[in-house]
Amino acid sequence: MSVFISPELASAHVGAQGVAATSESAASDAKFATQLLGRPFDEATLLALGHPYQGATDFHKRAPAL
Questions:
Q1: Residue-wise pLDDT tens digits, 12-50
Q2: Would you put residue 23 in left (φ > 0), alpha (ψ -120 to 50) or beta?
Q3: 65 within a domain of the structure (yes/no)
Q4: Which residue among 24, 33, 38, 48 has its CA within the 20 to 30 Å range from the CA of 57?
């Protein structure tokens, strides 16, 4: 999982904090993204949720085949 806070997230359009997480389906190998939204000025909670997920996955270390 790649965890990042970015102005391109949908959360930026509504003024909320957001963390995006990359995932994939074990059944179909389909890739998708999940977005966690938080309260204003509550980045610590979002990162506290995203950091353990990143530690349990290797999505943030993968690169697409070129």
A1: 666 677 787 777 766 777 777 778 888 878 889 988 988
A2: beta
A3: no
A4: 38
Q: Hey, is 56 helix, strand or coil?
A: helix
Q: CB neighbours of 19 closer than 8 A, spacing ≥ 6?
A: 3, 4, 5, 35, 36, 38, 46, 47, 49, 50
Domain count, the chain: 1
Tell me the residue range of the domain where 51 lies.
10-59
In a domain, 34, yes or no: yes
Q: What is the pLDDT of residue 13?
A: 65
Is pLDDT of 8 > 60? no
Question: 29 in a domain, yes or no?
Answer: yes
pTM: 0.57
Is residue 3, in this structure, part of any structural domain at all? no
